[in-house]
Amino acid sequence: MGFAIGDFWDTTPYEFSIIAEGYAERKQQDYDLAITQAYLTSRWVWAKKLPDLKKLIGKKGPKKAMTDDQMMKMCMALNKLYRGEVKENGN
Description:
Helices cover about 55% and strands about 0% of the residues. It has about 90 residues and is mostly helical.
């Protein structure tokens, strides 16, 4: 869903604050991505010997089955990352 400038007058202050927060988060993510890309690029520029590009492109490791504990840890990490709520069973 996009936000057109004509929609400004039809939004409540609360809705506008949510839109502004989302915009600020996207800008922060863009900034973080740019910094990460610059860092990784600098690592490649200064490397004495680069790995063969053909070995890097399309390289996928074998799929590994996760145990229940590993899956739970991954779910908890993703939940924390996306600021989710933790609900106990039955609640």
